[in-house]
Specification:
Oligomer: single chain
Structural class: mainly beta
């Protein structure tokens, strides 16, 4: 009898272990398929991922339009999904939403722009925010044969206005041109009362920054000295 009871106990334990394994498998993560309907945009490949895990949704491209996010409703209602999401428990189809964009053209003015020179923005979009990463670079050759790297100053409208922090994209197309800055140094030479000789004064030199093409007039004062009219600084073009 003891042998039979021991055998029954072992069998019951084995059954319980199998049942627990089946239960754990049924409650575990399963692989689901995420599909994408781009509604006129370029094709996007499906994603297979485990439910409950995180995945990054793709960003489709459609010429002349700005992407507004993915929706799980075909009518594009409800929550818009972008970036990283938690994978749902079952297969899901996402539908792309779009807004017709306005063309913005960036002219690097002889410089090099990493990224697209033409892009579409929503009317009313903040331009400064949209162009945070649009920083062109420009190198110029100097008369002595060396090269100089210019600094990027700002984007400018065709009428000469600089782009402001709160400017927005108009309803019609827009072209902005880059302007660059350069450092320049005003060197000071001091002269005695007899005006017989000059002494270079390095400690009174000043370095400034302004836009290339700007007209500058050196205007420095040095304690204990006056500036004579014949030696007044003349305007210079950078």
């Amino acid at each position: 009898m003891k042998v039979i009871r021991r055998g029954l106990l072992i069998l019951c334990a084995a059954v319980l272990a199998i049942a627990a394994g089946i239960f754990a498998a049924s409650c575990g993560k399963n692989t689901v398929t995420l599909s994408f309907e781009t509604n006129g945009g370029g094709a996007v490949a499906q994603i297979e991922a485990e439910s409950g895990s995180e995945t990054t949704l793709p960003v489709p491209v459609r010429e002349g339009f700005v992407f507004d996010g993915w929706f799980t409703a075909k009518e594009l209602t409800g929550t818009a999904y972008n970036g990283t999401i938690t994978v749902p428990d079952s297969d899901t189809t996402y539908y792309a939403a779009w807004t017709e964009g306005v063309l913005l053209t960036l002219d690097p003015a002889g410089g090099v722009l990493s990224g697209e020179a033409q892009r579409y923005l929503r009317p009313g979009a903040n331009l400064a925010d949209a162009l945070k990463e649009a920083v062109p670079s420009k190198t110029v050759a100097l008369a002595n044969g060396s090269e100089r790297q210019l600094g990027f100053g700002n984007w400018f409208y065709p009428d000469g206005r600089a782009l402001g922090a709160f400017d927005v994209m108009p309803a019609e197309g827009l072209t902005l041109q880059a302007r660059y800055t350069v450092e320049y140094t005003v060197r000071v030479f001091l002269q005695n009362l007899s005006q017989q000789e000059y002494v270079r004064s390095e400690e009174n030199n000043r370095t400034f920054t302004d836009y290339v093409g700007a007209v500058v007039s050196p205007d420095l004062s040095v304690f204990g000295f006056i500036r004579t009219e014949e030696n007044a600084g003349q305007p210079s073009v950078l």
